[in-house]
Design goal:
Blueprint (H helix, E strand, L loop, with lengths): L8 H14 L3 H12 L5 H15 L2 H17 L18
Helix pairs in contact: 1-2
């Protein structure tokens, strides 16, 4: 795709200087900047892939231990004596 942009002279100068400093053509450097700053093409798919890798390599026993630790930590670090995860509701509401 060809794109023509009218840049203010100061911005054009900064872009040119930085491209030269990096040893790149101005257009190649501008493409790098755009690619870096724009959101990924399919961020949702990227996250699904990441989560799936966690599931694929996960150790169920380690996950269980981590979950139990997290529940204990959340229940202990409260201003109230009321637990977020009361044992009598395990399997019912959590």
């Amino acid at each position: 795709m060809r794109l023509t942009i009218d840049l203010p002279s100061e911005l054009e100068q900064r872009l040119t200087q930085e491209a030269q400093r990096r040893g790149l053509a101005v257009d190649a450097f501008a493409v790098q900047l755009l690619d870096k700053e724009l959101p990924p093409r399919d961020r949702g798919m990227e996250l699904v892939t990441l989560l799936q890798t966690w599931l694929d390599v996960a150790d169920p026993e380690e996950q269980q231990e981590t979950g139990e630790y997290l529940i204990r930590a959340l229940d202990e670090d409260r201003l109230s004596d009321r637990k977020l995860f009361p044992p009598e509701l395990k399997g019912v509401s959590w």
